[in-house]
Amino acid sequence: CFLTGAAKLVVVIAIFLLTFYVISQVFEIKMDANLGHIFAYLWILSKILFYFLLKATKPPRYKCGISKACPEKHFAFKMSSGAANVVGPKICVEDNVLMSGVKNNVGRGINVALVNGKTGELLDTKFFDMWGGDVAPLIEFLKTIQDGTIVLMATYDDGATKLNEEARKLISELGSTSIANLGFRDNWVFCGGKGIKTKSPFEQHIKNNKDTNKYEGWPEVVEMEGCIPQKQD
């Protein structure tokens, strides 16, 4: 990437110098051209040069806006929890926003996106109210997830009050370690999978603590990005 940017920079500088030379020759022939016009042309040329310099040095953008490209046979993902009870969570996989406030498919509690582990295709999205709702629909939903499915979860507002032992156990079987300690208004994001043999490395958890909370009554947003290995046959 660095060599490509440097090569572009050399080309841009060469074009600038060539253009300046041609214009200077024209002004030598047209003796009636005033100095103000010359500076005007130079100003325009400098703006054009600055634009191309920015393009030449601009860092590449990776899928979902993650910090580096994923290797082959991996799916890029980025996700964030909700911000207090104001801004909903966001889940992106392979440059496709699966859940967000803009898409109007997130809600209070635990937000879940299911993705095909082989193709990266979205299978389903759901949210379960863990404050005013019932944990039973979440349990039933977790039981229907098929082996090989990537499971992404993010909390919004409160994702723990209605959780019981059965629900926590089902989520831990997807690779979560923090679910056992998830408490009232904690912020939590997790990416695991059905049939996973080990604990997932993709998990972030911040406790609700009145002494450290960023927002009144809620901790700061947690964000996470990474590369999910594609399921192989």
TrEMBL record:
Gene Ontology cellular-component terms listed: extracellular region
Q: Which residues form the ILEI/PANDER domain?
A: 108-195
**Which Pfam family, any one of them, does this sequence belong to?**
ILEI
Q: Does the keyword Secreted apply?
A: yes
* Family annotation (CDD domains): ILEI_FAM3C (cd13940)
The family classification in the record reads: Belongs to the FAM3 family.
Quote the subcellular location field of this record.
Answer: Secreted
Transmembrane portions of the chain: 6-23, 35-54
Which GO MF term does the entry hold, naming one?
carbohydrate binding
PANTHER family, per this entry? UNCHARACTERIZED FAM3 (PTHR14592)
Q: Which domain of life is it from?
A: Eukaryota
State the UniProt keywords alphabetically: Disulfide bond, Lectin, Membrane, Secreted, Signal, Transmembrane, Transmembrane helix
Q: Write down the InterPro entries for this protein, in alphabetical order.
A: FAM3, ILEI/PANDER_dom, ILEI_FAM3C
Protein's UniProt name: FAM3C protein
Instruction: Look up and give the organism this protein is from.
Output: Ptilorrhoa leucosticta
